[in-house]
Design brief:
about 45% helix, alpha+beta, 5-stranded antiparallel β-sheet
């Protein structure tokens, strides 16, 4: 019966089959930082018995920031992200302690999870956010100044932030009612803004206002 099955009943070869089935690099390392076992069949001859810091980082001594060192020092699980030269890529390194019967840590199990795609996606997201922030900053420079002055033939146009916003929407072909819904004011208030814009720009209709605003780069 399954309920009577214990770990000692599982054949040794099954343990190895399970460990080798792990897709990501999987190693068992002793307290001297020597690799005792790996699931990388093609690399066994080179890796087993070698120091992990030589194999993975090309160093002559253990890394100052090392998940295996963290396990041996703390006796607890240790997780970190690191560029691993052997695999030429970013890995999330996870290390777990193996205890003897007296609860002393004698080995560490280390697995390196491939996070290259995650790093790439984060980098793309950061570039997107940076571009968005830059765009917003440029927009803010235009729309948050208390007074916008532009000179044309000796005439000065002093448009408020709200008037620039209405002018921009008006140039896009939106009606007063549509603009009022977007900026959350009444159509009557929008109409007042439009009249003020016409007066300040010295124009008679929406088309003239839009053309002049575009030529003077007000929007």
């Amino acid at each position: 019966m399954l309920e009577n099955l214990c770990l000692n009943d599982i054949p040794k070869f099954l343990y190895y089959a399970i460990l080798r089935s792990v897709r990501d690099p999987f190693n068992i390392i002793d307290r001297n930082f020597r690799i005792l076992w790996t699931n990388r069949t093609k690399a066994e001859t080179q890796m087993i018995g070698s120091f992990c810091y030589e194999i993975f980082q090309g160093r002559n001594e253990p890394c100052s920031e090392c998940p295996v060192r963290g396990v041996f020092n703390s006796g607890k699980n240790f997780v970190m992200e690191k560029w691993v030269g052997l695999w030429d890529g970013w890995r999330e390194l996870r290390a777990y302690p193996i205890y003897d019967k007296n609860r002393n840590v004698i080995y560490a199990v280390k697995i390196g999870l491939d996070i290259a795609d995650r790093k790439l996606n984060l980098a793309k997201q950061k570039r997107y956010v940076d571009d968005l922030e830059n765009s917003l900053q440029e927009m803010t420079k235009k729309k948050t100044s208390a007074l916008f002055e532009c000179e044309n033939g000796g005439v000065h146009f002093n448009l408020t932030d709200r008037e620039i916003e209405v002018l921009d929407l008006m140039a896009r072909g939106l009606t007063n009612t549509e603009i009022s819904k977007i900026i959350s004011v009444s159509p009557h208030t929008v109409k007042s803004h439009v009249i003020h814009i016409f007066n300040k720009l010295g124009v008679n209709d929406r088309t003239q206002a839009s053309v002049l605003a575009a030529r003077l780069k007000l929007i």
